[in-house]
C-alpha cells in the first residue's frame, strides 16, 4: 500500500456497504466516497422521500469530513447523483442551506439506479 494514502473510517458515518473506505486522504486533500441516505445505526435507507434522504446524506458527509477536522467550507467539488432529476429543486435547496455562502464546483447527474434503492448520493473532494 502507498504510504502517502491514508484510508479513512469515520465514526458517526454509516459503515461502508462494500469494499471501500469513507475517504482517502492524500496530502491535504480528502477524497470522499459517495454517501447515500443510510441511517448509521440501523444501516437502512431512511424513509420519507427525497427531503429526508438528502438531509441524511448531508449528515453522513458531515461526519466523514469531521473525522479529519473539516466541514462543508473545506469542500472544493461535489457530485450529486439523483435517481430522478425532478427531485433536483428539493436537493438543490437543501444543498444551498447546508453550504451557505460557500459554493464549490459541482456536477449533478441522473442515474439509472443507486445502491439500496437510494434516491440521492453525494460525493465530494475537500482541501484540509
Amino acid at each position: 500500500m502507498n504510504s502517502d494514502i491514508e484510508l479513512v473510517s469515520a465514526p458517526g458515518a454509516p459503515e461502508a456497504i462494500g469494499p471501500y473506505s469513507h475517504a482517502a486522504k492524500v496530502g491535504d486533500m480528502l477524497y470522499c466516497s459517495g454517501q447515500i441516505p443510510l441511517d448509521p445505526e440501523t444501516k437502512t435507507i431512511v424513509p420519507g422521500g427525497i427531503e429526508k434522504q438528502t438531509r441524511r446524506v448531508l449528515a453522513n458527509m458531515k461526519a466523514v469530513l469531521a473525522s479529519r477536522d473539516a466541514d462543508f467550507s473545506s469542500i472544493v467539488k461535489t457530485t450529486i447523483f439523483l435517481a430522478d432529476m425532478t427531485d433536483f429543486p428539493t436537493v438543490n435547496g437543501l444543498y444551498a442551506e447546508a453550504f451557505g455562502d460557500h459554493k464549490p464546483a459541482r456536477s449533478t447527474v441522473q442515474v439509472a439506479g443507486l445502491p439500496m434503492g437510494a434516491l440521492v448520493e453525494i460525493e465530494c473532494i475537500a482541501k484540509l
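The chain has two helices and six strands. The longest strand covers residues 75-82.
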